[in-house]
Specification:
The chain is mainly alpha-helical. The protein contains 15 helices and 2 strands. The radius of gyration is 20 Å and the shape is globular. The structure holds 3-methylbut-3-enyl trihydrogen diphosphate (2 copies) and magnesium ion (3 copies).
Amino acid sequence: MDVLNEISKRAKEIGVEVMKGLEQGEVPKLQGAVRHYPEGGGKRLRPVLAIAVAQAIAGDSGKRMAMPFAVCLELVHNFTLVHDDVMDNDPVRRGRKAVHVLYDVPTAIIAGDALFARAFDILATADVPSKHLKRLLSITANTVWLIAEGQQEDMDFERTPAEQLSVEDYMRMIRKKTAVLFECAAEGGALIADASEEQVAALRDYAYLLGMGFQIHDDILDLTSTEEVLGKPIGTDIRNGKRTLMVLHALSTLPEGDKRRNDLLKALGNESATKEEVDAAMSALHDSGSVEHARHMAADFAARARKDLDVLRDGEEKEFLTALVDYAVGERAT
Ligand code: IPE
Ligand code: IPE
Ligand code: MG
Ligand code: MG
Ligand code: MG
C-alpha cells in the first residue's frame, strides 16, 4: 500500500469538510486567523485515524457518521497548534507564517478559542445515537483538558533541571500533550461504529502507542529534518530547552566534563545560541547515541501498536492502520 498517497487522498477529502466548517463568522481578521492553519493543510492524521477506525468496523456508513467527529478533532488540533506556536515562540507552521506572527499574539489567543468553540459546534451535528454523542463530547472535552496539562508540563519542564526529570515524566507529558488526541480519535471512531468494548479498548491502546511513537519521532525530526520539508523551523526544541527523550538520555549517560555534554548544555534553553552552537548540540545528541536510542523507543511503541490491530477483521482499513503506524514513527518526511 502506498501509505503517503492514501493519507493525502483521505486528508484532502477531510480538508474540504474542515474548511466548510470555518465559513461562518463576521469579523474578517478573526476569520483569517482561524482559517490560516487549516488552509495550510497538514497531514490531518487525527481525523484520518478516526475515520479509518470507524470504516474498519462499520464500512462506508461508519465513515459517513464519523466525519463531523473527525472535523472536530482536526479543529481541536489546529487550535492547539495556534497556541503551541505562541508558547514555543515558533514563527513558521505548515510552511507559512505562524498565526501570532502574521497577526499578533492576542489574535492568536482568540483564534485558538474560536477554533475550539467551532470544533464542538460541529461535533454536535454528528448523526449518531445520543448515548454515543454524550460519550464523544465527554472524551473530547476531557482530552482537551489533558492536552492543557501536557502543554503546561512541557513548558514547566523547560525550566526544570534535567536531572530532576525522569523518562517517566517525559512519557507522561507527551502522552497528555500528543497521544491522548490520537486515543480520542480511535476511541471515538470505534464508538461511532458500534464496536465492542474489547475493540474500543484495543483501538484506544493502538492509538496511544502510535501517538507516543509519533511525538518521539516529531522530537527526532526537530534535529534531523529541514524547515523546507517540515514546514516548521528545526532546532527550536534545543533553543527552547525542551526536555526531550534524547536530551534526558544524553544528560543521563554523558559524564560531567564530556565535550558533548558541554556542547549540549551550552545551547539548551539558550534563546540567543548561535546556529553553530545549536548545530554542536545537535551533533552531541547524535554522537551520544541519544537519537538512535529514541528511534528504538519509537519503533518499540510502533511494534506494540500493530499487535492491537488483531481485534479488526482483515481488509483494506486494517492494512491502512498498520501502515499508518510505520508512517507515524519514521517513514514520513514531515
Ligand atoms: C504537530 O502535529 C504537533 C505534534 C503533536 C507533534 P502534526 O505533525 O500532526 O502537524 P500537522 O497537522 O501535520 O501540521
Ligand atoms: C505539540 O508539540 C503538541 C501540541 C500542539 C499539543 P510540539 O511543540 O513538539 O509540536 P511542534 O513541533 O511545534 O509541531
Ligand atoms: Mg511546538
Ligand atoms: Mg510545544
Ligand atoms: Mg515538535
